[in-house]
Each structure stands twice: as C-alpha cells, then as structure tokens.
Design a protein that fits this description.
Elements lengths: L4 E6 L2 H14 L4 E6 L6 H11 L14 E6 L2 E7 L6 H6 L2 H7 L2 E5 L12 E8 L5 E8 L1 H12 L4
Parallel strand pairs: 2-5, 2-6, 4-5
Antiparallel strand pairs: 1-7, 3-4, 6-7
Length: 160
C-alpha cells in the first residue's frame, strides 16, 4: 500500500502556522503528529496552528522545560510534548510517556526523532527544512490509514 505524502513550501511564519491550522482541522480522531527539524525551524509554530485548527483559544508555548503541555477546546484535547532533552526510553517513561500516548486525543511531539520506535500510529510525520530567510520546506508523511485520511483532508483544504 502506498503511503500518502505531501511537500509544501512556506514563505514565512504565517504560512507555517497555516499548515498547522489545516492539520488541526484535518484531525478527526486520535492522531500523533511527529515534528522533526532543526532549532528554529517552526515546530512550535505548527503546533500553535494545530491548536487554532482544533478550535482552541489557549496560548501555545513550547514545553521544552515542562516536557508536556495540554490544551483543551472545541471538544478536543491537544497534548504537546517536547522530547529534546530525552536521551533514553527510561527518560521517556520518566515523563509519563506511556500514559501520554494512551490518553492522547491529538498528540504533537517536537524533536520526534528522539522518540523513534516509541511513536504511535496513526501518525503524520512532519519534517521542517530551513530554506532561505523565513522559507520552510514542510514534508508530511502519513503512517496508518487514519493518518492517510487526515492528510487527504488537509490536501482538500487547498494547501498543495
């Protein structure tokens, strides 16, 4: 079975946030969004957009030091995890990873490469690549049928 994928280019932070918003709108069921990219690539910006798309009015901040932030609204829950400082499975478990994954509605994981092998499906892998200036190349790849359906809904919003 072919895996659905999509590559988009944004010219500024607003465009990166809009991809996140469209992703939030496309989330109809439990879904993990695994965010990868260098420091300053826009991972938290994507999550801010996701919260908007999910109907949440909360101010989204990076959970770099708290590890996990939760946001509620629109009848949904967004669990935002930053695993930048995670070095092992034991570190993941020390932040309650198993419970986070089991209880998550929409799960956004920054620095997802540090949790490879522990990321749940359905999942959309989002890789942000720095371009010139504020430009970003945003690659989205679906893992699982529900994620493929979510990516199809995102494409239907006309972002491609």
């Amino acid at each position: 079975m072919a895996t659905r994928s999509l590559v988009l280019t944004t010219r500024n932070e607003r465009g990166t946030r809009e991809i996140g918003r469209a992703l939030g709108v496309a989330c109809c069921g439990p879904l993990c969004v695994a965010l990868r990219g260098p420091l300053g690539a826009g991972k938290t910006v994507v999550v801010k957009g996701m919260a908007e798309g999910l109907g949440m009015a909360d101010t989204v901040t990076s959970p770099t030091f708290t590890f996990v932030n939760e946001y509620h609204g629109g009848g949904r829950r967004l669990t935002h995890v930053d695993v930048y400082r995670i070095e092992s499975y034991e570190d993941l478990e020390s932040i309650g990873w198993s419970d986070v994954v089991l209880e998550a509605d929409v799960l956004a994981v920054e620095w997802a490469e540090r949790a490879d092998g522990e990321l749940p499906a359905p999942r959309i892998d989002v890789t942000l690549v720095l371009g010139s200036g504020d430009e970003r190349l945003v690659e989205l790849r679906a893992v699982g049928a529900e994620a493929e359906a979510a990516l199809a809904r995102l494409q239907a919003q006309g972002l491609d």
